[in-house]
Amino acid sequence: MSAGRDIAPVEDGVLPVLYSFRRCPYAMRARLALAVSQVPVLLREVVLRDKPAALLAASPKATVPVLVLPDGRVIDQSLDIMLWAAAQGAPEGWLPSDDAANADAHAWVARCDGPFKRALDRFKYPNRYPAEEAEGAREACMAFAGELDETLASRPYLGRAGWGLADTAVAPFVRQFAAVDPSWFDQQRWPALKTWLTAFLESDLLSSVMDKYPPWQPGQPDLRFAPVRSPTLSLSSRHA
Ligand SMILES: N[C@@H](CCC(=O)N[C@@H](CS)C(=O)NCC(=O)O)C(=O)O
User: Fold this and answer.
1) pLDDT tens track for 156-191
2) I want to staple 31 with a disulfide (CB 3.0 to 4.6 A). Which of 66, 114, 209, 226 is the partner?
């Protein structure tokens, strides 16, 4: 565990429980959304190859993130966790403000989670897939990155009113894409995308959700996840 800045053991069971995995981009987007809305939860860090029975009981599909609310309701899709968190009090402008912006944000998330994620897996782990699937994966990722770059050249964020739902949902996956082969990524011409990604990577928001938690075990005191630093992200003059 890191210095334990915002991590304090809690005793009662009144907070929601988030099953999370630090490096998982889906879990990351859920933690980011909880952070921007300043929603405290108890964080249970999961080892994916040894998932706790409590997680499997809450959500047999056995992916992270999973949020278990104090009333027993289970939210086991990252986007739904984001929307639940935002409903608790997202900052002004974080949620799309009209139907068109909402459709646009959800379209970005759908493309990220669908074709981009599929291509990203094959670009990142070509040996796990048949050659014909791995082939072309990088180009498919590049097509998505190119479209992001084009959009971000016309406005600084995917959200029309600032860093918002779509930015938060998509950025952890672009982070992963950029990290597959950093020197190759650096050579690509996506200036607006790189500005946006750098702002995310250097943000207090991201670092506030990346603290290390020891793997959770039953009976262990629960740890509170309550990032208190800057809950929003903006492109500072450094990046603009
Ligand atoms: N559609 C799910 C996908 C979540 C997901 O696939 N998470 C991965 C980790 S990044 C996982 O838990 N995989 C199960 C495993 O590796 O056993 C969501 O949006 O929450």
Assistant:
1) 999 999 999 999 999 999 999 999 999 999 999 999
2) 209
Q: Can you read off the two tokens belonging to residue 151?
A: 């959009």
Q: How far is CA 22 from CA 1, 102, 165, 168, 240, in A?
A: 12, 28, 20, 15, 29
Question: Residue 209 domain-assigned?
Answer: yes
CA distance 107 to 91: 21
48 lines ligand 1 (CB under 6 A): yes
Mutate to test the pocket of ligand 1, among 26, 83, 125 (most ligand atoms within 8 A of CB): 26
11: CATH: 3.40.30.10
Q: How does the average pLDDT of the chain come out, rounded?
A: 91
Residue 46 and residue 30: Cα distance in Å, rounded? 14
The response to whether residue 24 sits with its C-beta less than 6 Å from ligand 1 reads: yes
pTM: 0.93
Mutate to test the pocket of ligand 1, among 28, 64, 116 (most ligand atoms within 8 A of CB): 64
Residue ID of nearest Cα to ligand 1 atom 11: 63
**Pocket lining: 78 vs ligand 1, CB cutoff 6 Å:** yes
Atom number, ligand 1, closest to the C-alpha of residue 64: 12
Tell me the CA–centroid distance for residue 90 and ligand 1, in Å. Answer: 24
